[in-house]
C-alpha cells in the first residue's frame, strides 16, 4: 500500500441489492421509494413528504426492507441519491436511518435521526418523527452566542473602568501639601 492510497476516501458502500438509478427513478413521481410497502403505507409516506415540503423542506424518503450490514450504508445510499436529486434524503430500514441534505446541517439531521431510529420497521412512524424533529424550531444559537459575547465584553469593560478608578490616588485635605513659610 502506498502513501497516496492510504489517504484516499473510503468508497461508499451501499446496501446489498440496491440500484441507485432505480431508486432515483422511483422517487421521480412522489419523492417516495418504498420497496415492500403497501399502497396505504406508501400513501402515508407521500403525505409526510408533502407536510415537509409545505414547511420548505425538499424531502425524499427511501425505505429498504432489511437492515444492511452496517448503518453507515444507509447514509451512503442517501448521499448517492442526494447528489443526483438534491434536497434532503432519508433512508429508512427497520431499525436504522441514514440521511443526506444539501440544505440542512449534519447536526440537525443527526438530531432528527435519533427519535426515528428503532421503530421496528414502521417506516411511517420513523419518517414522521424525523420530519417533526426537522420542523421543530431549534434554539437560535447565533443570537444566543452574540448576546453572551456582548455581555462578556460589557462585564470586562466595566471591570476595567472600576479597576482604573481604584488605581487613581484620592486627594483628601490631609494629603494636600501645605506651604509653610520659612
Automatic annotation (TrEMBL):
InterPro entries: Rv1476-like (IPR046498)
Chain ranges passing through the membrane: 139-162
Organism: Antrihabitans spumae
Alphabetical list of Pfam families matching this protein: Rv1476
Keywords: Membrane, Transmembrane, Transmembrane helix
Highest taxon in the source lineage: Bacteria
Official protein name in the record: DUF6676 family protein
Amino acid at each position: 500500500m502506498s502513501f497516496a492510497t492510504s489517504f484516499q476516501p473510503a468508497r461508499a458502500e451501499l446496501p446489498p441489492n440496491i440500484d441507485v438509478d432505480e431508486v432515483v427513478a422511483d422517487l421521480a413521481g412522489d419523492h417516495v421509494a418504498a420497496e415492500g410497502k403497501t399502497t396505504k403505507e406508501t400513501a402515508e409516506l407521500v403525505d409526510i413528504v408533502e407536510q415537509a415540503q409545505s414547511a420548505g423542506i425538499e424531502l425524499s424518503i427511501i425505505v429498504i426492507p432489511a437492515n444492511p450490514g452496517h448503518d453507515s450504508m444507509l447514509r451512503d445510499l442517501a448521499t448517492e441519491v442526494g447528489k443526483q436529486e438534491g434536497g434532503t434524503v432519508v433512508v429508512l430500514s427497520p431499525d436504522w436511518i441514514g440521511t443526506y441534505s444539501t440544505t440542512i446541517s449534519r447536526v440537525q439531521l443527526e438530531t432528527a435521526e435519533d427519535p426515528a431510529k428503532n421503530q421496528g420497521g414502521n417506516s411511517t412512524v420513523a419518517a414522521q418523527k424525523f420530519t417533526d424533529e426537522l420542523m421543530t424550531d431549534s434554539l437560535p444559537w447565533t443570537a444566543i452566542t452574540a448576546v453572551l459575547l456582548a455581555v462578556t465584553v460589557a462585564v470586562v469593560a466595566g471591570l476595567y473602568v472600576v479597576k482604573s478608578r481604584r488605581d487613581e490616588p484620592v486627594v483628601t485635605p490631609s494629603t494636600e501639601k501645605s506651604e509653610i513659610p520659612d
